[in-house]
Write a structure and sequence with these properties.
The chain has 288 residues and is an all-alpha fold. The chain has 3 domains: 114 residues; 105 residues, no CATH class; 47 residues, no CATH class. The protein has 15 helices and no strands. Helix 13 packs antiparallel against helix 14.
Length: 288
Amino acid sequence: WSRHILYSKSKVSESEDYQRVGAFLKAIPQDVLAKASLRSKAYTRALMHFEAHITENKESIQDHLTFLQTLYAAMHEPDGVRGVNALRREEPSLREQILEHESIGLLRDATACYDRAIHYECGTYQRGYEYIVRLHMLSELEHTFTELQQSKKGSVPHLSKLPPHWSDRLEMTQNSFRAKEPILALRRALLSLQPQPVCEELVGECWLQSARVARKAGHHQTAFNALLNADNTNLAELVTEKAKWLWSKSDAHQALIVLQKGVAQCFPDDQTLTDPHSLQIKGKAMLL
């Protein structure tokens, strides 16, 4: 509109409306307009605004090579992409290398860069996740000590079962022994601070969870050690976990024997089950 008014009626260009519109347009940074034009696929306009931004602000083009390369790639200008790379004073990033390879048709090289980028991101994620697990543990440590202080004062009762959010948080944790076992070890230590004998049952549940996690990870000896520690508690789930551990070692015969004996011991025929949790455990055991 401003260009139309400017070139059609020169006197109108001196009006207040024109001046206001002109001031508004000038207030919009040229680099913002360039990025908006790129997203809108108005590539020629994006290049025009980019050039205006560089000229007005007298900035070094070295700081904007990634944007310029992306723009040339979107315009299907392989020579422009090559030209941008020629201007670089530093080694291009993986993303920049991928742009160049794809724009000039070197798809094998682009694939190699993608593989390297994926490997790098996975490694970075894994290193970062270790800190997330530590923050997770610090949060539980703080929460449990607060509850212990309150229970000593009599303001809250002692734990009679594992906090429900513990199970949810463990489910959301990365499905690996390396991530889950430190959390379970901390929980066992925290639960041991609770009064006896309630803590023995709760610690046993944590040992059982460790056995399950270790078994799924293929750490059979670690799983066995956890089962031995959980054996001091009267957990019905212990029977099914022992059977699953034996089955994972390809000892199907012994797994069936343990399962049959365990079901007969934990759920005798003359005992009527009314607890939904016990019914669920028995049902799972019978289905194995």
